[in-house]
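Need residues for this backbone.
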């Protein structure tokens, strides 16, 4: 009977791991959708998740010792509560975003950090609480029960949840349907933890029914949770590349991707500028390429009589919606829709164009920034005819050009000037870059008039808005000493990161100092073995962030890959923990060897991305993640054994691993990568592991059983 109860607890641990991982990925995707697809949001979500888990670990020890000793029935109540909680988490993120912040407004770094912290607080604490509380339930029955086994079972559940999410749920079900699917087994196993007499009582049926009703209610009200405050929700779908919604306000349709408006039926001025500025410079354009598009653009394109218009859009769902709601006009026999990443398409095609128009937002993310780097401009140059033109745009300004924006434009100007002899910037609602090897005429209305092309906005307002003095003043303000923007050294990301703070009258300095102080206080209080777990968790999660950002750079999208990457970085924990638990030799020495292995992996990563770059296959990053997690998993049982493997050691080990991972996430994403770039961020993680070897391999510390 005792063994059956132990198995019941293990089943709860496994299914809690499945539920937790799927919920984590859903929360990450939800935050991406609510905050405009910013990769920094991924890091902030993971940081809050991990830090709350670490606090929950310590809370479990305190409650078990001083208030409610762990029992099977109490663990069952925790699991039933956990099964229902994700519904409230997702609803809170969806519904409170526009309550806390102005609808459609840009949100600052600190505000996002605090919002995600509060939204994730209940579930993050409870997930952190559940794992050690499960172990304490077993240890109260058998004090020698190994904590490593619970660690391994939790990891097995995490990996299973990641695989289920990445290869099944993301393609077949909506977020709230996914929550129901993964939490039904947790409900069942939690129910079976109650003693048989309790299960027959009516009150316990009510305890089971309430979480089930909540899970079903989430599905019923899913669409309502996305209905905008103004207008109506005309369309909604969570695709593998991002969330797509179409809002209708009277006769205006607006398509949103991950919370950002990307298409509208009534933005004629932008459509005219985007199309006619570059095409006016080509006497007889025949073939052009759009990388993404804007509403009404194809109507303007048709005026030039092109034979072929290749339109590249990564997400098939977007083009389907665009044509369905008339956001883009189809021109039979002319428009060729290509569902592929724009940069990957150019790298794998031999086609030559008269014009390439990049219609993408500001380079605030690594995914967008890769279309504004030297490598991309080099790629574009190879696909343009001798008289061909490249056009792209950034956010405009009214009267005053701020210094961060000047530096951003200067970096872009210096980067693209290395590939085109003539670069002209046209100010306005957007700043358009026209890039060509032949001279560029500023008299665009006259060029269009000669072609017999009529426009509403350019014909009537061009000379009033784009005077010779204003154009010359903008182009003369470029700082030729500003660094160029590169894939591995994304200067634009650094500028946009600091501009993000400046826009909200804040500074990252206070945040960086606060992180250093909190980290220092924690490190003073922990033991040597805990520092190993802290530094390894920090390095492993830092490596995961490096991979996430690198995948954005080289492959162009992360929304559908985030589950796979997280799963791979968990996949090595189970076999690593198993190997570490079976080691009978010098445990302290093995800890040092594994630290050396992790340093070797980081050096391999640096060399690979430095010299392999875009030629690296996705499998390289996945193998790198698997071996990183293998080393992390192997160190956990070694450190736990050296600390005594009792209640205190288990709680401290779980906590050190999670808090280290949290700081690694934040340190890498919010400090190292934006300021120093990916390569130097990797060197920073190597430095931390060298410190770990120095601390743990010198001296000796004896621990008391507590």
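Answer:
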């Amino acid at each position: 009977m005792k063994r059956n109860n132990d198995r019941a607890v293990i089943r709860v641990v496994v299914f809690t791991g499945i539920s937790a991982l799927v919920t984590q990925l859903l929360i990450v995707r939800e935050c991406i959708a609510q905050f405009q697809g910013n990769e920094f949001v991924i890091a902030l979500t993971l940081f809050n998740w991990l830090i709350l888990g670490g606090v929950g670990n310590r809370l479990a020890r305190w409650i078990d010792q001083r208030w409610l000793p762990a029992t099977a029935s109490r663990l069952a109540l925790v699991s039933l509560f956990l099964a229902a909680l994700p519904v409230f988490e997702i609803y809170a993120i969806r519904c409170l975003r526009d309550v806390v912040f102005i609808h459609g407004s840009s949100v600052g770094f600190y505000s996002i950090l605090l919002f995600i912290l509060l939204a994730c607080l209940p579930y993050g604490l409870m997930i952190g609480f559940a794992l050690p509380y499960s172990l304490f339930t077993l240890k109260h029955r058998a004090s020698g029960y190994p904590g490593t086994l619970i660690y391994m079972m939790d990891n097995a559940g995490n990996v299973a949840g990641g695989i289920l999410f990445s290869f099944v749920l993301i393609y077949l079900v909506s977020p709230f349907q996914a929550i129901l699917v993964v939490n039904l087994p947790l409900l069942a196993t939690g129910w079976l933890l109650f003693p048989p007499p309790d299960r027959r009582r009516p009150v316990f049926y009510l305890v089971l029914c309430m979480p089930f009703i909540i899970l079903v209610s989430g599905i019923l009200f899913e669409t309502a949770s996305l209905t905008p405050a103004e207008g109506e929700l005309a369309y909604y779908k969570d695709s593998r590349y991002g969330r797509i919604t179409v809002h209708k306000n009277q006769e205006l349709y607006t398509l949103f991707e991950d919370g950002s408006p990307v298409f509208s039926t009534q933005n004629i001025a932008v459509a005219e500028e985007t199309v006619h500025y570059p095409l006016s410079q080509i006497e007889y354009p025949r073939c052009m390429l759009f990388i993404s598009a804007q509403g009404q653009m194809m109507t303007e394109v048709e005026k030039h009589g092109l034979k072929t218009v290749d339109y590249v859009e990564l997400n098939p769902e977007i083009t389907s919606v665009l044509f369905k709601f008339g956001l883009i006009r189809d021109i039979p026999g002319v428009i060729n829709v290509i569902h592929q990443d724009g940069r990957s398409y150019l790298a794998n095609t031999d086609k030559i164009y008269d014009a390439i128009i990049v219609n993408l937002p500001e380079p605030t993310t690594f995914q967008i920034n890769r279309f504004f780097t030297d490598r991309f401009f080099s790629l574009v140059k190879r696909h343009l005819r001798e008289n061909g033109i490249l056009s792209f745009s950034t956010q405009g300004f009214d009267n005053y050009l701020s210094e961060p924006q000047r530096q951003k434009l200067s970096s872009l100007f210096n980067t693209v000037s290395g590939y085109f002899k003539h670069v002209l910037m046209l100010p306005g609602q957007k700043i358009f870059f026209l890039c060509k090897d032949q001279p560029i005429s500023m008299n665009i209305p006259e060029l269009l008039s000669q072609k017999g092309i009529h426009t509403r906005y350019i014909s009537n307002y061009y000379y009033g808005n784009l005077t010779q003095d204003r154009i010359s003043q903008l182009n003369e303000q470029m700082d030729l000493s500003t660094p160029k923007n590169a894939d591995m050294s994304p200067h634009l990301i650094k500028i946009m990161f600091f501009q993000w703070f400046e826009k909200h009258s804040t500074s990252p300095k206070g945040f960086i100092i606060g992180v250093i102080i909190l980290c220092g206080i924690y490190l003073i209080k922990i033991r040597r073995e805990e520092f190993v777990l802290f530094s390894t968790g920090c390095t492993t999660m830092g490596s995961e962030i490096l991979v996430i950002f690198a995948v954005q750079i080289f492959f162009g999208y992360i929304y559908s890959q985030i589950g796979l990457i997280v799963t791979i970085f968990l996949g090595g924990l189970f076999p690593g923990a198993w190997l570490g638990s079976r080691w009978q030799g010098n445990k302290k020495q093995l800890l040092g060897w594994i630290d050396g292995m992790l340093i070797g992996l980081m050096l391999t990563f640096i060399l690979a991305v430095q010299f392999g770059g875009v030629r690296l296959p996705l499998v390289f990053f996945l193998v790198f993640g698997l071996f990183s997690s293998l080393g992390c998993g192997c160190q956990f049982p070694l450190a736990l054994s050296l600390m005594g493997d009792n209640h205190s050691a288990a709680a401290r080990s779980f906590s050190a691993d999670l808090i280290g991972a949290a700081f690694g996430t934040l340190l890498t994403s919010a400090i190292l990568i934006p300021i120093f770039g990916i390569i130097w961020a990797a060197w920073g993680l190597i430095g931390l592991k060298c410190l770990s070897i120095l601390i743990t391999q010198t001296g000796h510390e004896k621990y008391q059983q507590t």
